[in-house]
Known about the structure:
This protein is α+β, with helices and mostly antiparallel strands. It is built from 4 helices and 10 strands, in the order αββαβββαβββββα. The strands form 3 sheets. Strands 3-4-5-6-7-8 form a 6-stranded mixed sheet, sandwiched between helices. It has a two-stranded antiparallel ribbon with strand order 1-2. It has a two-stranded antiparallel ribbon with strand order 9-10. Strand 6 (136-141) and strand 7 (147-151) form a beta hairpin. The N and C termini lie far apart (47 Å).
Amino acid sequence: xxxxxMLPNRMTVAEFMNWHPNDGQKWQLFDGEVRAMAPAxxxxxxxxxxxxxxxxxxxxxxxxxxxxxxxxxxxxxTMSAHNxxxxxxxxxxxxxxxxxxxxxxxxxxxxILSPSNQADTWANVWAYxxxxxxxxxxxLRTDTVGGDLLRRGADGAWPDRPAWVDSDLLxxxxxxxxxxSELYAxxxxxxx
Length: 192
């Protein structure tokens, strides 16, 4: 019997949190459907850890009451009983309990876009816009230096389209600024 045949048909977040397939795979809950997540390639993994470390250092130096999380669950407001998405990086400025299923009130979410997972990544991004606390979503590219930035307006609305960022990234909600050329400098994209 294949592993796919043993997947549950539909789950709630509570059922998902109690489900332990013990198969070494990473999973997310996508509108009640359990979906496997492919392992990150080397560039994706490097960018994730490097950007996480830079954000964490900034939070410490700025003495902000925020934490950065990698691969932590996020529960969008849209179909919240059936969705637990797993962004690459999130920042929450709310106290957290180590037993929580997902950090409360994320303010920044970062996804790293690989050419092979564009549809799921963008579906996640639009689900993240339903979370009231989220102020900024950055989609970092692995095929070029740059990314797409969505920033919630003062009126609480999201722009129709993301802004392209290929030089200095500013995550205003946490006061974080970074030259993307520095982020990519040690990667093959940094030598172009």
